Amino acid sequence: MLWQRGLSARISRQNNPPYNTGAFRFELTFSPNHPLEPPCATLRTPIYHPSVDLEGRVCQPLITHVHWEPSTRAIQVLQDLLLQLDSPDLQRVLRPDVARELQERPEEFRRRAEEHTRLHAEPRPDPHT
Questions:
Q1: I need a labelling partner for 57 at 20 to 30 A (CA). Which of 4, 7, 21, 46 fits?
Q2: Cβ atoms of residues 59 and 111 within 8 Å
Q3: Of these residues, 28, 59, 85, 99, which one is catalytic?
Q4: Which helix (H) or strand (E) holds 97?
């Protein structure tokens, strides 16, 4: 089973910069052993984020084998992913250089993330259609 969803579908969440101007495609891939094994979350749209590496892998402890519980629902994985993307956690880092920039030069991080979003993200869907 493969799920794809744009991050612009955050109905109950605020749309916070620097990612609020674009939609990001991601995949949740479920193994044949699901729910005994966690899904794999991958961003298919490039994003300038300390918790997402250049291949789109996300540092998301919820879906590691150590923390995975078979009772965890896909919606919980998606909510955790959206929260992580909206509010970068410097304890969940795959790109130390980006995390350092966020911590030491937040204006520069935001400028780069906004520019990266402008260049790579898909247009946000119109919520009224």
A1: 21
A2: no
A3: 59
A4: helix 96-104
Q: Which residues contact 18 (CB under 8 A, 6 or more apart)?
A: 48, 109, 110, 113, 114, 117
Residue with tokens 């084998």: 65
73-82 pLDDT per residue, tens: 988 988 898 8
For this structure, is 59 an active site residue? yes
Burial class (CB in 10 A: 0-12, 13-18, 19+), 27: middle
Q: pLDDT tens digits for 16-45?
A: 789 888 888 888 888 888 899 998 888 888
8 Å CB contact between 28 and 63? no
pTM for this model (two decimals): 0.83
Element containing residue 27 per DSSP (H, E): strand 25-29
Q: Are 23 and 7 in contact (CB under 8 A)?
A: yes
